[in-house]
Design brief:
alpha/beta, 8-stranded parallel beta barrel, 14% strand
């Protein structure tokens, strides 16, 4: 069963994008929500498993409770991000249980990440989640390719990674994957990387990534569903704008607002000051970097 309201498909059809803000610390949710509402925008609030395992998002239930407190109809969408089948530490995860529980408490879309599996196993795990998501009339996002950055240890030099196409999403595999799983949105690897989440690297400025725009366009034409860009923080604006025109319809943002929160909290020890830093950064991203103020007139939840 296809999902009911699908804001990512709406964005793709309108030639625009949905920003999805990750919440690694629970107090960040309020300023992100306030910025979205004040900018008359539409955006996702999302939480990934590593954000309650390695940071302080607490749990999907805690995020849902805070989301309900801040939600204003027509502005905010609650998404369960990155639930891996095998996580960044190469541990098996009870992904199906976590996703089912999130659906039960009211998340409006979910993501299963089987990208560390072999293709047939990724297809099988994703198809299993698609079935339960569509049974509840919600969308399922999946990932194919390797969006690096969350693993322990340093990445290869970025230029080496980009030039070699290490982990980039393969066109023929994408065709087979989408056709076999029925997923609604596909997270792709096209030069984008996640921000580091552990050790000293997590506080460093993220590499300014670029995108293989030809690969974005080819993937969009191949799978004919909206594409998702994880690791959206720090990508050069010219590449982001071009990628949206070629099929990227959802962009995840985490490092950009997380580091703003952490830096201000370290400097002042004051949560309210850290929240203000998140509000200002989120506002800048929506209004100035992506030009999405007023997008609520186009995207309807």
């Amino acid at each position: 069963m296809p999902p009911g309201i699908d804001i990512v498909r709406q964005a793709r059809q309108a030639g625009t994008v949905i920003l999805a803000f990750n919440i690694p610390y629970l107090p960040m949710l309020q300023p992100v929500a306030e910025a979205v509402i004040d900018q008359d925008a539409v955006a996702m609030i999302e939480t990934a498993r590593l954000e309650w395992i390695k940071f302080d998002a607490h749990s999907p239930g805690a995020i849902k409770k805070e989301f309900d407190r801040m939600n204003k109809p027509g502005y905010l969408w609650l998404h369960l991000d990155h639930i891996p089948v095998v996580d960044e530490d190469m541990l098996n995860v009870n992904y199906f249980y976590i996703i089912q529980e999130a659906i039960n408490i009211g998340y409006r879309s979910v993501m299963v990440d089987g990208s560390r599996l072999k293709l047939p196993d990724n297809i099988a795990a994703t198809r299993r989640v698609v079935e339960i998501a569509h049974a509840d009339n919600i969308a399922c996002e999946a990932e194919l390719g390797a969006v690096l950055g969350h693993e322990a240890g340093p990445l290869p030099p970025y230029e080496e990674l980009f030039t070699s196409g290490l982990g980039f999403t393969d066109l023929e595999e994408a065709r087979q994957f989408v056709g076999s799983t029925g997923c609604d949105w596909l997270s792709v690897a096209v030069g984008n990387i996640h921000g580091a989440v552990s050790g000293v690297l997590k506080d460093q400025k993220k590499v300014e990534a670029r995108l293989n725009l030809d690969r974005v366009e080819q993937l969009s034409q191949t799978v004919e569903i909206p594409l998702v860009l994880h690791g959206g923080s720090g990508i050069k604006q010219e590449y982001v704008k071009a990628a949206i025109s070629k099929g990227i319809a959802k962009i995840n943002i985490g490092t950009e607002i997380r580091q703003a929160y952490e830096a201000q909290l370290r400097e002042t020890g004051n949560v309210s000051s850290a929240q203000k830093a998140v509000y200002d950064r989120t506002t800048w991203l929506i209004r100035d970097y992506y030009g999405l103020s007023g997008i609520r007139q186009v995207i309807h939840i």
